[in-house]
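#onboarding

Welcome to the new folks! Below is a worked example of what a typical request in this channel looks like: someone posts a single protein sequence, and someone else replies with the predicted structure as tokens. Don't worry about understanding the tokens yet, we'll cover that in week two.

Example request:
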Amino acid sequence: MTPDALELLHQLVATPSISRDETAAADLLQSWLADHGLASSRLDGDNVVVRVEGAEPGPTLLLNSHLDTVPARDGWESDPWTPFVADGRLVGLGSGDAKASVAAMACAAVAIARAGLPRGTLLFAATVMEEVGHGGLEKIVGELGPIDAALVGEPTALDAAVAQSGLMVVEGTAHGRTAHAARARQGINALTIAARDILALHGLTLDRVHPFLGASSVNVTVLKGGDRHNVIPDRCDYTIDVRYTPSYTADELHAILDATTEATLNLRSTRLRPVETGVNSPIVAALRAARPELTLFGSPTMSDWVHLAGTDAIKIGPGNSERSHTPNESVAIADVLAAVHLYRQAASTFLAG
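Example response:
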């Protein structure tokens, strides 16, 4: 018998777990798992891990989602941590992103353990700090052992993201020469250099189009320069946000940006690399068997999938990504229940080989 995912989801949403403060939610989940016959462990603080071993050796499948949420934003029409049901949806902070996935995966793990696993290993990891990075799955993945495939629980309306964009952050510094604004010709305006760079980057075309993610994008998102109206500024700093697909490497993009701009460029972050899984992967086949109407797509948003590079992984879960981080966040009850079946059936099929 499969446990009630909605009851667990209600309890999880009612337990605040803003990033870096997930202990209460981890305690709740561990207690719930124990009540349903599953032993769990804590890794590196509040990451909850369950391991279900099959009767025979076989592949290892990871079910992973995150316990943490962003803080509540202005605009909530009710208390974010008092979940309620309206129009077939459960409303509450983190309901879709991503406590619905956590609840559905936990229930699927219990059902699989109760039924008995003929072969292979099922791992369920409810991890922390996904919203802020530098913790959670990123820190414990090496302790989980070899993983043959993974399902990453995020709100995708139960469709399968087979590719995810990467993020590269680049800092540009335009260097000029200061002068009195009344004698501007004696100086070199760093703002002008930065302006030329911004226009060049705006017109930059990255022509390698990914079949699921489309084209990569380059945008200047922060600009800082000058502090007095009567002084020609000798420095202007700007930040470039690059959302890129597996069609490019970070080194290739850095070279392209460097050739396009006059400023000195510094790579601030390249740790969130793009990832993808082949459409003919066994884990995709297992998902199709569990959900024949499955649609494959590319996701522009980040997730802990990035820490599973080199593993066949799919991002999939109940909820809609557009509702994440918004006031009055909610998830369809029908999707939560369907997710339990999806995770259970896909896991069983994959592990059966």
